[in-house]
């Protein structure tokens, strides 16, 4: 079994990309702390000189100037060190976010669908942000603050072992108290994280579902769900902080008081003649000097405790199993025929497609019809490579799609889904997503061909109108036509239209039908249609029932078969004859 990578290994992998920047940052941070220690040695020296009766005032002035210079130099080192570590860290964070988002495009759609958008957003934005403290601060500052106290302690041990040990007593007790904060830390942090995720999900659900909430008068109950999640989130943190509060306070009070032991025992040693006054003074000053860096170290323990969970969440995405595709295509399809061989597929544990076999010739028009929930869209998604089949294979031009790189395959397929997402960008840029190299003229031409030019021009800013999140400012039919224009611009040899005309009125449907005909000339087309009148000319119609292909043939052949297709056709015609809405 493959061993799981530790959080430290992930951090090292991420930080390793900018190791020279971090190394410079750590060295400068060490110099910063060392320069901050210099004044303590100088003060010790000044007191010794006073005790020895030095009367030359200029000697003291020079020492004071040296103290001031040490502080200034320390600050300069600190600023440069922080600048280096932040420069490296922000590019590392950008890289982690890029990898995470790239990963989402390579994992099966199921992972993204099964993880709420609130959770994913929380990981990609907030959680990744919280790695910043570790990389930009802990790495240089923790390392740099640990080294000087060690140096000082070694020096103290050289002066007097007893005093060195005494200076450590309150520090050790303070640290022990800090560790008390870690009792049940993982559990408490996980609980707080879970509650935050629940709050994020409740907020996203409340915002996304606001239309339904208003229409069905669910504002109170939905808002209640949100406030309950907010309350539980706050309680999780408050309860946890309450538990830590005593340990934290004891630690903050004890750690700085190194003099609590150094002063009385030092005085005793002077009285019994085992310690000189000069060494006593030096010990007091050095004992004070280790406090600052050690408190700085302690302030990071909380972040160090959290980092495991944070890295675990990000790593959880980065280690998701990807769609089974090679980096580079192993073979080249000889044409764009599509063959599904013994396909079985299920969402989670429930199989919804059973032994599907289909053959579509290159450049042919194919329709998939069947009752709602029979598995039509699932077949389209498998062909579009949004999921991997559980068994069986899909071949394009004689090549198993698992032997084709995802990038190359994606270029071959234009998929217009039932509910197409439009980015919160201009209509022009939304269409251009089909081909990022397309000129404005080509974008406008695609819009003309898909019958959406006129309505786009009637929008407030024409092609420069912002479509709004998920295309919220446009009607369902308008969104669909923009999606078709996007697919046209892609000019892929395989086109899948999943209920592409579902939202359109009969007039517009005729426009779209003719533009689709132009779009797919010479291409392999798969249309999923409820309105059977739109697919009567298809070269092949596949009838799906309960996850199985129950009939296939041309419109004429299927009518002669007297099967499910004929029943569906008669139902369709009778709606029309009764003056019902044929678009229903
Ligand atoms: N993401 C999913 N997770 C779990 N089950 C799903 C998912 N998507 C679809 N299903 C289920 O798989 C089955 C087939 O759904 P599919 O969307 O392929 O049917 P369809 O024939 O396209 O339906 P419609 O005509 O209503 O769009 C249904 O039972 C559906 O509930």
CA distance, first residue to last residue? 53 Å
The number of distinct helices, counting runs of at least 4 residues, comes to: 22
Query: Going by CATH, what is the homologous superfamily of the largest domain?
Result: ABC transporter type 1, transmembrane domain
Please tell me the overall pLDDT: 83
Oligomer: single chain
What ions, cofactors and ligands are bound? adenosine-5'-triphosphate
- Tell me the major beta sheet: 6 strands, mixed
Tell the overall outline. elongated
How many discrete domains? 2
Fraction in helix: 55-70%
Strand content: 5-15%
Which structural class matches the secondary elements? Answer: alpha/beta
CATH fold annotation of the largest domain: ABC transporter transmembrane region fold
The CATH architecture category of the largest domain equals Up-down Bundle
User: Which class of the largest domain in CATH terms?
Assistant: Mainly Alpha
CA-based gyration radius: 35 Å
Point out poorly predicted stretches. Answer: 580-584
Number-wise, the strands total 10
Widest sheet: strand ordering? 6-7-8-3-9-10
Polypeptide structure, described:
Keywords: ATP-binding, Membrane, Nucleotide-binding, Transmembrane, Transmembrane helix. Its main location: membrane. It is found in: Cell membrane. With 584 residues, the chain is of the alpha/beta class. The chain contains 22 helices and ten strands. It folds into two domains: 7-183 and 247-318, ABC transporter type 1, transmembrane domain (ABC transporter transmembrane region fold, Up-down Bundle); 338-577, 3-Layer(aba) Sandwich (Rossmann fold), CATH 3.40.50. It has helices at residues 7-16, 19-51, 57-106, 109-114, 117-159, 161-180, 185-208, 210-215, 219-254, 259-271, 277-289, 291-299, 301-318, 376-383, 406-412, 427-432, 440-449, 453-457, 476-490, 506-520, 555-561, 564-577, and strands spanning 338-347, 350-360, 365-369, 391-396, 399-400, 413-416, 494-498, 524-528, 540-545, 548-553. Helix 5 (117-159) packs antiparallel against helix 6 (161-180) and helix 6 (161-180) runs parallel beside helix 11. The structure holds adenosine-5'-triphosphate (ATP). The site of adenosine-5'-triphosphate has 11 residues, from helix 14.
């Amino acid at each position: 079994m493959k061993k799981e990578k530790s959080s430290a290994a992930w951090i090292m992998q991420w930080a390793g990309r900018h190791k020279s920047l971090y190394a410079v940052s750590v060295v400068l941070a060490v110099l910063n702390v060392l320069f901050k220690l210099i004044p303590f040695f100088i003060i010790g020296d000044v007191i010794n000189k006073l005790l020895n009766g030095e009367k030359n005032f200029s000697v003291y002035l020079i020492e004071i100037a040296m103290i001031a210079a040490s502080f200034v130099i320390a600050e300069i080192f600190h600023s440069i060190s922080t600048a280096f570590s932040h420069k490296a860290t922000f590019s590392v964070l950008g890289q982690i976010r890029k990898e995470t988002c790239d990963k989402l495009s390579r994992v099966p759609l199921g992972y993204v669908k099964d993880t709420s958008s609130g959770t994913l957003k929380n990981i990609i934005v907030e959680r990744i942000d919280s790695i910043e403290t570790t990389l930009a601060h802990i790495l240089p500052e923790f390392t740099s603050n640990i080294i000087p106290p060690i140096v000082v302690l070694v020096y103290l041990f050289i002066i007097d072992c007893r005093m060195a040990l005494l200076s450590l007593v309150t520090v050790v007790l303070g640290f022990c108290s800090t560790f008390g904060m870690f009792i049940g830390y993982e559990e408490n942090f996980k609980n707080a994280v879970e509650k935050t995720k629940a709050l994020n999900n409740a907020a996203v659900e409340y915002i996304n579902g606001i239309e339904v909430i208003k229409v069905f008068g669910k504002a109170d109950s939905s808002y209640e769900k949100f406030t309950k999640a907010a309350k539980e989130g706050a309680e999780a943190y408050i309860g946890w902080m309450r538990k830590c509060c005593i340990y934290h306070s004891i630690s903050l009070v004890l750690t700085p008081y190194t003099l609590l032991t150094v002063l009385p025992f030092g005085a005793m040693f002077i009285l019994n003649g085992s310690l000189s006054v000069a060494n006593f003074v030096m010990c007091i000053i050095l004992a004070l000097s280790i406090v600052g860096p050690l408190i700085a170290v302690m302030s990071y323990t909380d972040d160090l405790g959290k980092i495991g969970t944070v890295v675990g969440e990000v790593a959880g995405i980065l280690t998701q199993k990807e769609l089974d595709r090679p980096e580079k295509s192993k073979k080249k399809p000889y044409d764009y025929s599509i063959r599904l061989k013994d396909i079985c597929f299920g969402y989670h544990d429930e199989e919804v497609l059973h032994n599907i076999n289909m053959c579509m010739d290159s450049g042919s028009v194919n329709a998939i019809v069947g009752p709602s929930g029979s598995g039509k869209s699932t077949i389209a998604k498998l062909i579009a490579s949004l999921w991997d089949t559980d068994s069986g294979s899909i071949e394009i031009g004689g090549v198993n799609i698992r032997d084709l790189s995802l990038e190359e395959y994606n270029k071959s397929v234009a998929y217009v889904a039932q509910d197409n997402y439009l980015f919160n960008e201009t209509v022009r840029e939304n269409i251009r997503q089909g081909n990022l190299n397309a000129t404005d003229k080509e974008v406008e031409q695609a819009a003309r061909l898909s019958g959406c030019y006129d309505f786009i021009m009637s929008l407030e800013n024409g092609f420069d109108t912002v479509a709004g999140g998920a295309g919220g400012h446009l009607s369902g039919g308008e969104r669909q036509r923009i999606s078709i224009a996007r697919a046209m611009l892609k000019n892929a040899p395989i086109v899948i239209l999943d209920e592409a005309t579902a939202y359109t009125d009969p007039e517009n449907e005729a426009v779209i039908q003719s533009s689709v005909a132009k779009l797919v000339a010479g291409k392999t087309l798969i249309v999923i249609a409820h309105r059977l009148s739109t697919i009567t000319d298809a070269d092949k119609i596949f009838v799906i029932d309960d996850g199985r292909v129950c009939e296939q043939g041309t419109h004429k052949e299927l009518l002669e078969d007297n099967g499910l297709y004929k029943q569906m056709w008669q139902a369709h015609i009778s709606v029309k004859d009764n003056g019902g809405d044929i678009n229903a």
